[in-house]
Structures are given as C-alpha cells and as structure tokens.
Automatic annotation (TrEMBL):
Binding-site list for Zn(2+) 1: 20, 22, 124, 243
Annotated keywords: Hydrolase, Metal-binding
Source organism per UniProt: Kutzneria albida DSM 43870
Residues binding Zn(2+) 2, per UniProt: 124, 157, 186
UniProt-listed Gene3D superfamilies: Metal-dependent hydrolases
Protein name listed in UniProt: Phosphotriesterase-family protein
GO molecular function: hydrolase activity; zinc ion binding
Similarity comment: family membership: Belongs to the metallo-dependent hydrolases superfamily. Phosphotriesterase family.
C-alpha cells in the first residue's frame, strides 16, 4: 500500500504523480522564502490537479514546517493524494538548538510519524556534496532502522546530485535496506550517465526533479540522461518531480513556474522525445511501485 495523509491506498489508485515536491517548507537557509501559506499551497495543488495531476509526494521532513494537518485538509479539498515525509535534512537547515533533540530521537520520531496520527509515507534524508558527513551517516542509520521497523521507503536529497553510490553503500550494503526501497533525488543536477546507470543497476529508483532551473543543468541535459536510461533498460526506475522549495518559485505567486510546470510543459516535451508509454511509466507506474511497500506497522 501507499501511505497518504488520508490513509493507505492501493498502488493503482495513485495515478499521475509528482514524486518530489513541497507545499510547505521552512529552512534556516532560505529566510523570507518560507512555504507556509495555506491558500497559496491550495492554489498550487489545484493548478497541478487541473493539469492532470492526481498525487504529490512532499519531501519536507521533520522540523521544517511540513504541516501534515494542512496537507490532509488540502488533499481532502482538492482530491489530490498527498504523501508526507519524516526524517531529517542536512544540519544547516535547522537551528542548532533544535537539531540535537531531533537527531537523538530520530528513529523514534520517524517510526511515530509513519505509524500514528496523520501518517507520513516515506523517510527523507540528505547527503553532502560528493560525500556523507557525520550528520548524514547518523541520520541515514536512523532512517535505515525506521525502515526495518516499518517498511517505509527512503528518499535521499543528493547535494547537487552527487554521491549516490556512497548512499547506496551505506543504506543498502551496511544497513541492509533493499535498493528498491531507496529513491535517489536530484540526479538531474549531476548528469553523469555512468553514475546514473550504476545506481540503476544496483536497483534504486532515480528521481529527476526541479525542472526549469537552468543553473542546475536541468532541462537542457535532462532529455539526454533520461534517454540513456530508457535505452539501457532502466526507464522503469525513473521518477519525476518539481521540487518547489521557495515562495518565489510558485506559479500562484506570479514567479513560477511552480508545480504545474511538471505536467504543463515538461511532460509534453518528454512525451515527444521518449514516447508516451515511457513517460506514463515515469509519472504513473514507477511512483506506484516506488512508494508502495508492505507496511509492517
């Protein structure tokens, strides 16, 4: 089952999915750009639904203003299924006085978020640029423990798309998380096809998110790396997302392009390039498998 903020659903109920985005997000690194406006979030989600979107996975972890109560209200109001996250981001996103208490109890917090109240449906963790620091190793160890207790999938923020194989070494080889329960995010930001193929061959899901950001080498290289993965037989492991992290990036603020861009602009271009069957798999079948797990609790 897939665990949404309104309850568990069968994989075939998920539909067209934005596999990595944010309706609410507050970070010490982005002062003044908080995503905390419920009306703006609703406008964004309704626009996504009007473009054909049926589900959205919010990767905002614990301590960053994820607002699970509001997510449930928005999902109910718009008809778009929403999957929430637990876990922790990089240390720099938190105030130091709060971080220690979260890290020390992370397994307990994550299991609680995944199994009670308005439940999360995934665990979010993060690496650093080309390496895993002590914070990342500690957080990923706690995430692996929470996975083993619950079955939850683990989504990984790769800093500028780097160190995916190091993440798999830690989560899978050292801590026994099955590779198909790991989602590697931001791979579009480091368009090294050999690394992508190695991660795919290991069995992980590969998330390409944050389209329209030219400074992250996204759209103009995205087609090349996705074509390579499809041609090498790994199209069934690709996920796509918008990763809207600031108020200025929302379509509803007039800045944009926001969450709807994923379906209004990127999807038609990808369909022309890769074919509708491959792209439908990336938006429907693949997320249905990536976020569906045999929950243990």
């Amino acid at each position: 089952m897939i665990r949404t903020v309104l309850g568990d659903i069968a994989p075939e109920e998920l539909g067209v999915c934005d596999s990595h985005d944010h309706l609410f997000f507050r970070s010490e690194l982005l002062p003044g750009q908080e995503l905390d406006d419920v009306a703006a979030a609703e406008a964004e989600l309704r626009a996504f639904g009007a473009a054909g979107g049926q589900a959205l996975v919010q990767w905002t972890p614990a301590g960053l203003g994820r607002r699970r109560d509001a997510l449930a209200e928005l999902s109910r109001a718009t008809g778009v299924a929403v999957v929430a996250a637990t876990g922790l981001h990089q240390a720099a996103h938190y105030s130091p006085d709060r971080l220690g208490g979260l890290v020390d109890r992370l397994t307990e917090i994550s299991v609680g978020d995944l199994t009670s109240g308005i439940r999360a449906g995934m665990i979010k963790v993060a690496g650093q640029f080309h390496h895993l620091d002590a914070h990342a190793e500690r957080v990923m160890t706690a995430a692996a423990q929470a996975h083993h207790e619950t079955g939850a999938p683990i989504g990984v923020h790769l800093e500028l798309g780097t160190a995916p194989l190091e993440v798999l070494d830690l989560l899978c080889d050292k801590h026994g998380v099955p590779p198909n329960r790991v989602i590697l995010g931001h791979l579009n930001r480091f368009p090294e096809q050999r690394v992508h193929r190695a991660a795919a061959e290991a069995g992980a899901f590969l998330a390409f998110d944050g389209p329209s950001r030219a400074n992250h080498a996204t759209d103009w290289r995205l087609f090349d790396v996705l074509t390579a993965l499809v041609e090498s037989g790994h199209g069934g492991q690709v996920l796509l997302g918008g990763d809207t992290t600031t108020a200025a990036a929302r379509a509803s603020t007039g800045g944009g392009p926001g969450i709807p861009y994923l379906l209004t602009t990127l999807r038609p271009r990808l369909s022309r390039e890769l074919g509708e069957e491959a792209v439908t798999s990336m938006f429907v079948a693949n997320p249905a498998r990536a976020f569906s797990v045999p929950w243990r609790r």
